[in-house]
Structures are given as structure tokens and as C-alpha cells.
Amino acid sequence: MSAITRIKAKAHVYGDHIDTDRIIPGKYTKTLDLSTLANHVLEDLDPDFHKKIQTGDILVAGTNFGCGSSREQAPLALKQAGVSVVIAQDFARIFFRNAINIGLPVLEIGNHTIQKNAQLEVDLQQGTVTDLSENKSYKATRLPEIMIAILAEGGLVNYLKKHGNYSL
Predict the structure, then answer these.
(1) For residues 41 and 77, is the Cβ–Cβ distance under 8 A?
(2) Kind of pairing, strands 106-108 and 85-88?
(3) Which member of 2, 25, 76, 112 has the lowest number of beta carbons within 10 Å of its beta carbon?
(4) CA–CA separation, 4 vs 2, rounded Å?
(5) What are the percentages of helix, strand and coil residues in the chain, rounded to 5?
């Protein structure tokens, strides 16, 4: 199994109902330049997010994360900005699947009290999140093995190239 299954990093914590327009404003979705997406990720929610995020950091949210449109640019922008995993109480289903498809891990924890800047350790294989700052553990809804395999390959296209009858 890939090293992607264990992640240890700082948490950036936000609230409920963060829609895809808040993740990446629509005016930036016409570009194919992923660095542009990364530079504007969450700018309407937190204008300095792109300056605060370090590669590998973890985004933590409340309920209904990624609601709104089905645009794939939302998880792409987060991944390109350096987010290693998104943890939320629950996700809009299309965002959840788009994230897996592009290789961005997502975990659901029904209730959490994770605070800004907490040091977290995530084990995707076991479906656990440990808040090292508070010495508290959470059990996430465990990802199916196929989703873990897709994430380990860096996304659905890479997985299909390796394991399926997929060619470009």
C-alpha cells in the first residue's frame, strides 16, 4: 500500500455548507492552469488561505462540504494548493466522488471537535484520525478498499491505466 495511507499535518478548520463556489470561485474555473486554481482556493472564505497552507496540510470542515455544482475544479484546486486530505462531518456526494477520482483523500467523521492548527495524524487504511494536540481519536467512515486503491494510484485515471482496460 502506498504512503498515502498515513498523513500527519496541521489542520485548517472551517464551518458548514462550504459549497464549490466558496472552494473555487466560478470566475476561475475557465482556466486549465492548476496553479491559478491553487492561488484562489477558498479566497472568498479565507483570502489568505493560499498563503497559510503548507503542502500536506489537512482541511477540516463541518457538514455538507462541497455542496453546489459538480465541478471537478473544486477538489483539484484543493489538491493543487497542497491539501493532503479533507475531513468533514459529511460531504456532498458528487464532491466526495470527484475528490476520490482525482486522488484527493476525503474522510467523514460524524462529530468532531478538531480546532484550528491542531496536529492530526490520519490513517486512511484504518479510517482513523488522531488529534495529537488534544490526544483524542476519531473513527471515520472507512473508505471501501477500491477507493483506497484508487487513491494509492493517484486517482481514477491512473488506477484504470494500471488495473483496467483503459488507454488514452
Answers:
(1) yes
(2) parallel
(3) 2
(4) 5
(5) 35, 20, 45
Give the integer Cα–Cα distance in Å for 66 and 58. 15
Helix, coil or strand: residue 138: strand
How many Å apart are CA 25 and CA 37, to the nearest integer?
9
Interatomic CA distance for residues 107 and 99, integer angstroms: 11
Matching residue, cell 476520490: 100
| Rounded Cα gap, residues 104 and 91, in angstroms | 13
Q: Which tens digit of pLDDT belongs to each residue from 75-132?
A: 999 999 999 999 999 999 999 999 999 999 999 998 899 999 999 999 998 999 999 9
* Nearest one of 131, 137, 135 to 116, comparing CA atoms: 131
Name residues whose C-beta falls within 8 Å of residue 35's C-beta, 6 or more positions apart in sequence. 80
Whether residue 87 contacts residue 112, with contact meaning beta carbons closer than 8 Å, is answered with: yes
Is residue 95 within 8 Å of 20, Cβ to Cβ?
yes
Query: What's the pLDDT tens digit per position in 8-28?
Result: 999 999 999 999 999 999 999
